[in-house]
Amino acid sequence: MNLLVLKLIAQRIALGILLLFLVSILIFAGTQILPGDVAQSILGQGATDQALANLRREMGLDDPAVTRYFNWLGGILQGDMGTALSNNRDIASSLWGRAQNTLFLAFWTALVAVPLAIILGLVAVRYQNRWPDRAISGTTLTAISLPEFFVGYVLMYFFAVKLGWFPSVSTVYDGMPFADRMMAIALPAATLTLIILAHMMRMTRAAILNVMQSAYVETAELKGLGGLKIIWRHAFPNSVAPVVNVVMLNLAFLVVGVVVIEVIFVYPGLGQYLIDHVAKRDVPVVQAVGLIFAAVYIGLNMVADIVSILANPRLRHPK
Domain spanning 3-34+92-316: which CATH class is it, in words? Predict the structure, then answer.
């Protein structure tokens, strides 16, 4: 790895840190304009003005916004995410179990969706403009066109309500047997798989077809190599960079975009935790979860950029 590559990687990391800092400002500013009053939510509608003022002062809500932002950012840099205003619990400890549940769901979804998307993309290229390609493309286009909540409710209706194969509420807890946990996440994982599979498969197909127009692929065809060998040995390795970018973007969606799915299936992950505390206007919790989602999304995109740089020599020599 030469100095140019190290410089490019360092630039991507620095850009990611800067972007995360800017996003933290947007998250903090956005939470300040949320409707409602957490003090009113805690004390109830019958609270007096003096009681509300005292509680706001105790929670630091009367401090200037700039002071509160830098106090919050300083705590985050020290590993302190603060305390939830609605229940006075440490946010970091509450988030840990929720994050494990979200990552568990995302891991098993990715384990199924990523290989399946790549395989379907290769099959679609192999049988381009024939019935397997049309069937795969048509099915994935339909899946990508449907809202995720609609897909989730359809799967819940048929496989939980009608057939009774899986639970409609994805309840998981510490010490739960592995088989029971897998049954609990079956429907949310299937919903997420259908959502991200379509995008990954179509982008994989497009990337490989783009490489198939290259001169070295035509040379391999003239040598008499079979279609599948050409795709696997020549086209696919040279389309790794765009495929990795698509995979990373969809992995980021798995962690960041699970909010709707977790709410539908009442799955105790970060998304459900976020929605519960948005309703209570628990600003520190919303800020912490929002920053975690932003860090995951930016981090995975940064990894995709670095992998692209390492896999594609042209990105290391843009001139």
Answer: mainly alpha
